[in-house]
Amino acid sequence: MEHIVIIGNGISGVTTARHIRKLSDKKITIVSAETDYFFSRTALMYVYMGHMKFEHTQPYESWFWKKNRIELKKGYVKTVETKSKTLHFANGDALQYDKLVIATGSKPNKFGWPGQDLNGVMGMYHKQDLDNLEEYAPNNKVCKRAVIVGGGLIGIELAEMLHSRHIPVTFLVRESSFWNGVLPEGESAMINREILENGIDLRLGVNLKEIKADKNGKVKSIIIAETGEEIECSVVGLTAGVSPNIDFIKDSEIDTNRGVKVNRFLETNIPDIYAIGDCAEQHEAIDQRRPIEAVWYTGRMMGETVAQTICDNRIEYKPGHWFNSAKFIDIEYQTYGWVWAQPKDNEARFYWEHEDGKKCIHINYDKNTREFIGINNFGIRMRHEFFDKVLTEKRSIDYVLEHLSDANFDPEFYKLYEPEIVAKFNQENNTNIQLKKKSWKRIFQTS
């Protein structure tokens, strides 16, 4: 019986295993050094914040794996011997495979800062990071202050987690405004305000110089590079991005760059070896996506795709239109299509922000053809299906605004802002777009 071995039990690896089992009776083994069972990585923050227990993050009961004949092996893969199709483990074990799927995810970036490996320094990616956080920051008596280094999505999640336990947080962001390599100026400024309004000490345009230790080898303070200021702290969160977790194959015959190089079928240069999820790097980027995408839903899609190929239905990975969502403390964020930090030469923008400073939309479109290119939503929920359809059909900015009510899926009793948004666009662009009413009525609506 053909043996499929999957290294990594995140969303990519587990989706692969589930779909191979749906399609075949092949022998399946999932290898992981992190946890016994698959858990939802994006839910780790809610465990620390007290909204759920760790076992609630596990979508499948422990009997699920045996029932579906998916073997689990806990261990750290040290090397992959491609000629003999053998995995060698740190504890001396070995495992033979017929086909191998590398789904080892990401690891937090470290940039050689002095003290970066001290006790009390952690990322916020693995289950072990959550355990470390509980040890070093259980409350504001044990942890008088935490410093977070790096201003991406994981950084703001960690800030919110610590803030929920009333632990003072200093947030070091090297950019001049939060996440302004991704977000345009208006949205970035909105998130700056949200961070500050929550009592978090946001420091923009600064870098970490070093992390200092006490006599027990534990964090005691950090030094800011630009000013030399020393900030006393008990915990340092390193959230300056992530990199593919592929050190164990760097010396193998498998082709790597930043990640494991794959073609559109998620195949590596070695027959019967595939790579998916955060650790996979496309030879050529798909559409305007990045060659490496550390995003939950693309990992799941890659798992579904590679399972088909392994089960003799070789299909190309096609992720479709870009979308993403996140939450910046109390402000929900969704993006569909492309809204760059800076518009390109052929692009025009429309920006609307509510007077409360916590809601906005930013639409990007082609100024020559008026084709809709993308939208950012902050504080207003909009339907993925609507924007996926208008992007596929290459609809105009005018069409999108006319039908904007159809996109909204805020709950009942929420105020609707579409008339105000369309009126502002008409005023700025000297147009006469009429908002079409929803096909179903809202009976209750508050002002």
What tags apply to this protein structure?
11 helices, disordered C terminus, five-stranded parallel beta sheet, alpha/beta, globular, 447 residues, 25 strands
Distance between the termini: 64 Å
Low-confidence stretches: 440-447
- The main sheet orders its strands as 3-2-1-7-19
- Profile the largest sheet: 5 strands, parallel
Query: What proportion of the residues form beta strands (DSSP E)?
Result: 25-35%
Task: Figure out the total of helices.
Answer: 11
User: Which structural class is indicated by helix and strand composition?
Assistant: alpha/beta
Overall mean pLDDT: 95
What is the total tally of β strands?
25
Gross geometry: globular
Helix content: 10-25%
Alpha-carbon Rg, integer: 24 Å
